[in-house]
């Protein structure tokens, strides 16, 4: 299955753009995260990396489909 992933902040630099297509066999957020870490090891260096599915933070066991809106939410700093 192919999943379209939107990237924000530093994840855009790591993925090489604001969107990426990730192909994987699994259908969970954990499978997606693992595939992203394998393809883009620099993502593992982020202090925290959240994944949102359809505008809601997702747990690793959440099942995803190709029609879901998936976004990488990097650590945020500010003041």
From TrEMBL:
Any single biological process term in GO: Mo-molybdopterin cofactor biosynthetic process
Cell division keyword on record: no
Gene Ontology terms, MF aspect: nucleotide binding
Keywords assigned by UniProt, alphabetized: Nucleotide-binding
GO CC terms: molybdopterin adenylyltransferase complex
Entries under Pfam families matching the protein: ThiS
Homology family: Belongs to the MoaD family.
Name the record gives this protein: Molybdopterin synthase sulfur carrier subunit
